[in-house]
Amino acid sequence: MRQMMRREPPVTRPEPQVNHPDPAPSRLKYRLERLMLTPLFRVTLRVGLPLVIGFGATTWYFSYDSNREALMGQIAELRDAFETRPEFMVNLMAVDGAGDAVASDIRALLPLEFPISSFDLDLDAMRETVVALDAVETAQLRIRQGGVLQVEVVERVPAVLWRSGAGLQLLDASGVRVGPAQARAERPDLPVIAGPGAEAHVDEALALFDAAAPLAGRLRGLERVGERRWDVVLDRAQRIELPSRNAVQALERVLAMDEAVDMLARDIAAVDLRLPRRPTLRLRGGAVEDYWRIKALETGEQQQ
Amino acid sequence: MIELYESQRAMRNVRKAAMQRGVVAVLDVGSSKIACLVLRFDGTDGPMPDDGVGSLAGQTGFRVIGAATTRSRGVRFGEIAAMGETERAIRTAVQAAQRMAGIRVDHVIACFSGAEPRSYGLAGRVEIAGTMVTEQDVARVLSACDPPDIGVGREVLHAQPVNFALDHRSGLNDPRGQIGQELACDMHMLTCNAQAIQNLAHCVKRCDLELAGLASSAYVSGSAALVEDEQELGAACIDMGGGATGVSIFMKKHMIYADTVPMGGDHVTGDISMGLQIPMAMAERIKTFHGGVVATGMDDREMIEISGDTGDWHHDRRQVSRAELIGIMRPRVEEILEEVRACLDAAGFDHMPSQQIVLTGGASQIPGLDGLASRILGSQVRLGRPMRVHGLPQAATGPNFASAVGMCLFAAHPQDEWWDFEIPVDKYPVRSLKRALHWFRENW
């Protein structure tokens, strides 16, 4: 009979009822969670705290000289290792477009010890240095493939010789100094200008030289007078004094007179066109006496 | 009466600040559970369309972003009985809700059902100053309502003007700008024990929260469970909670009466516990699974296992029929409904044009309750569930969350109360700048 009774499975009894309170967050936990839900606080925690910690740690680390130096040394080492890679090395300098003298001047001006890293080359400053040379008009510097520092130079072309107190100078067409000249005979192909302030009016002088082509055999040069106007100096100490304005036209007028009456071949000291409306001839001493004598003969005046 | 409403005005200001922050929590401090909803006001609440209300009865400006419920052990009959327990329960609910919302909540609007609410009807009458009714006239007529003797230790919980009358025209909602001579108003005032409010305020303060409003649970569950035409035509909402049953009568969209019967579902559970000699937890379980109020022949055959842990095999292996259970539950439910009937009779519910009765609250889920209630209360009885609001979790849509949902509506669109109107000029402190300004405006 007992075996026929249904066997109850062992009942898992619930815990005896004790009057313990419901689970609730403690005040501290509650406040902490509310604090964590405050947006400003969360931002401060997420951004501000790492920032402060990172900044503080860095400051502390670098407050020691040894650490700072070690880092600086490492940075310099890395930088050096990178800069001296063969890709960045410059091995030689090529100067194009310059004569030998100028090229050697440029080489002397840029004292580079090859090989050198291209990071150490200040191309702009070097270009300034090269352009500062009198004989160089423009210069281009670049680092070509294969580690070549390419210097492309356009030289100034001397157009006139300028005789000044300091000696003979070569000037180009815009009046910039090209270089000194030892003697006139060095450059017989160039015309000569002289006088103070002449170098500022080289273009005018060149126009005058062009106009004076018929006088080429006799032309000695041009002289700037009073920093205002030009004198054309011929051989036999003849001068053509040109006005300060329209000098070329005045010179052409003189040439026309010369062609008409062969004026310049005569014994005159100067043709004065400073007042263009009144060209004046200045005769030499002997010629004046001859002139007077001829005049006297013509007028039948008594000879003394 | 001015100093009486200082705290209410202060709470209004706190509510305004909370609306500006956009987040507010509502707290339903009930006898069986404490529910906390976190609302976010996103400002999408545009102007109300002219032809009626907008979608969701115009309650679209907010969204529930956090919800939590916890068992309430420190509240009896809808009043706080154990401060520590209640505070811990509030803390639990608020923490869980704000964790779900992922945002910190500082302002809370709370409601409770007990504390012996008493309704008073007030009437005021005043000659208006000019020809048109101004805000000042409204303020004066409100302050002309002679306050009843509410007794010592009582506090005003709600004071809502429900009707304005201008000369011979009554039933005005908003008399401002109308032309007349004599302005009268009817006001409904609800008072309750001040200690209950102080206890609740203290508990909320202990949780580092600021109280942004207080409401009667009967009122807010009525506004959630009654549909709009019921509120307009007249209806009573019976909020059957755990420890107290709230009764509120609505008419023309205003609450005109509220009361509380200090009995609820917990008493039914207690009866079952006593009658069957089982612990309360087991009684609650049996009530929710097998409870009912109308017995049929089949209920005699439906046997309910009653397990226990006394160690006495015969005691722990008893069985009762469902009819017996119903026999225990029904008298208590009838008693509650009889009390409600008495409340309604006292309020003169018989004379209302529409006598719709809506049952809501957790205890209204007893099967067959509507049939029993219609026999006791009247023929027009229905079971009401709270209206749907944005973002409310499915678990919080039942009738036991009627007051929590009503609190949402109360937080979003509170009805104008006495303290929301302007203070009449002659009641201002002497040095008030506003008074000087008013005098200036009157004279120039």
From TrEMBL, chain A:
It is found in: Cell inner membrane; Membrane. One of its GO terms (biological process) is FtsZ-dependent cytokinesis. The chain crosses the membrane at residues 43-62. Residues 1-24 are annotated as: Disordered. One of its GO terms (cellular component) is cell division site. Residues 88-156 form the POTRA domain. The keyword Lyase does not apply. Residues 1-10 have a biased composition (Basic and acidic residues). It is a single-pass type II membrane protein. Keywords: Cell cycle, Cell division, Cell inner membrane, Cell membrane, Membrane, Transmembrane, Transmembrane helix. The keyword Metal-binding does not apply. Its main location: membrane. InterPro entries: Cell_div_FtsQ/DivIB_C (IPR005548), FtsQ (IPR026579), FtsQ_C_sf (IPR045335), POTRA (IPR034746). Belongs to the FtsQ/DivIB family. FtsQ subfamily. Essential cell division protein. This is Cell division protein FtsQ. It comes from Salipiger mucosus DSM 16094.
Automatic annotation (TrEMBL), chain B:
It is a peripheral membrane protein. Keywords: Cell cycle, Cell division, Cell membrane, Membrane. It comes from Salipiger mucosus DSM 16094. The lineage of its organism: Bacteria, Pseudomonadati, Pseudomonadota, Alphaproteobacteria, Rhodobacterales. Residues 24-225 form the SHS2 domain. The keyword rRNA-binding does not apply. It holds the Pfam family FtsA. It comes from the Bacteria. Self-interacts. Interacts with FtsZ. One of its GO terms (biological process) is FtsZ-dependent cytokinesis. Cell division protein that is involved in the assembly of the Z ring. May serve as a membrane anchor for the Z ring. NCBIfam families: ftsA (TIGR01174). HAMAP family: FtsA (MF_02033). InterPro entries: ATPase_NBD, Cell_div_FtsA, FtsA/MreB, SHS2_FtsA. It is found in: Cell membrane. GO terms for cellular component: cell division site; cytoplasmic side of plasma membrane. Belongs to the FtsA/MreB family. This is Cell division protein FtsA.
